[in-house]
Design brief:
This protein is an alpha/beta fold. It has one domain: TIM Barrel, CATH 3.20.20. About 35% of the residues lie in helices and about 15% in strands. The strands form 3 sheets. Strands 3-4-5-8-9-10-11 form a 7-stranded parallel β-sheet, with helices on one face. It has a two-stranded antiparallel ribbon with strand order 1-2. It has a two-stranded antiparallel ribbon with strand order 6-7. Helix 4 links the parallel strand 8 and strand 9.
Length: about 290
């Protein structure tokens, strides 16, 4: 039995999903650009994730671009009825792999069509509007125009639910005046804790919070305390970091990514890792 069967669920749109999911960003080539070195291995990771009980996959058509969604379709289509696929829009890739804003209404219409075509779906489960912000995180500014464009596509039946990524509390409130927001995806992990208050706010509202880079992203988490706790528990530091996030709040949904089946199994096993109160206190104090 997979360890993920022990993980509790939380509402993500119209479904309750397990709190440990899978992020597909690493299925593309280096720098999330171009094809993977081993496409068959990428397909194998996705199949293993679903067989292990994962029912929440995070992706974007600008991963690759297009390639990650095409691999998801190859591996999993027709999709299990209980699988929720969440995508992001709001950017495109330059020919050099750069990340460029693309948030005009026509850009978003094109992005939804790309996602529908490459995933092989008529309706996209959840679409997050990803604001570009700056290198330090989200930046205040109105999102009325792009979010209204997505809300219109939702009314046309092309999107089931809407979410946000890289946003502030003020921007979430603005979006909610336009349409319901079912999830927020921001940068957060054991050491990146700027969203502590926002997580609690969203938890009280029953809204899912999905931390991206839960293991540090392109710079993996490093901490002597984290390593010591992991050694005491007979786990890896990354498993402990994920287990801490699950304890942080009941609305936290995890989407750790990997291109390795072995690493995937390690990530999923974090769902059953119990953190003693002493370890939880030491980890929380890191930041």
């Amino acid at each position: 039995m997979s360890a993920i069967t022990e993980v509790r669920t939380f509402a993500l749109g119209r479904r309750a999903v397990k709190r440990v999911g899978y992020g597909a960003m690493q299925l593309a080539g280096p720098g999330v650009f171009g094809p993977p070195k081993d496409r068959r291995a990428a397909v194998a990771v996705l199949k293993e994730a679903v067989v292990s009980g994962v029912d929440h996959i995070d992706t974007s058509d600008y991963y690759g671009p297009h390639i990650t969604n095409q691999i998801i379709r190859e591996a999993l289509h027709p999709y299990p009825q209980d699988l929720t696929i969440v995508t992001k829009v709001g950017a495109v890739r330059g020919s050099d792999g750069s990340w460029l804003p693309a948030q005009e209404p026509q850009d978003l219409v094109r992005a939804i069509e790309d996602n529908r075509r490459n995933l092989g779906v008529d309706v996209v489960d959840v679409v997050n509007l990803r604001l570009m912000g700056d290198v330090h995180g989200p930046k205040e500014g109105s999102l009325e125009k792009p979010f209204s464009a997505l809300a219109e596509l939702q009314r046309k039946g092309l999107i089931r639910h809407l979410g946000l990524s890289n946003v502030t509390s003020t921007q979430i409130a603005e979006a909610r005046r336009i349409a319901a927001v079912v999830c927020v995806q921001n940068h957060y992990n054991l050491v990146q804790r700027a969203d502590d208050a926002l997580i609690d706010e969203l938890s009280n509202q029953g809204t899912a919070y999905v931390p991206f880079f839960p293991l540090g992203g392109f710079t993996p988490l490093q901490s002597s305390v984290l390593s010591e706790v992991a050694q005491d528990l007979g786990a890896t530091p990354m498993q402990v970091a994920l287990a801490w996030l699950l304890r942080r709040a009941p609305n936290v949904l995890l989407i750790p990514g990997t291109s390795s089946v072995t690493h995937l199994r390690e990530n999923l096993a974090a769902g059953s890792l119990q953190l003693p109160e002493k370890a939880l206190t030491a980890l929380t104090a890191i930041a």
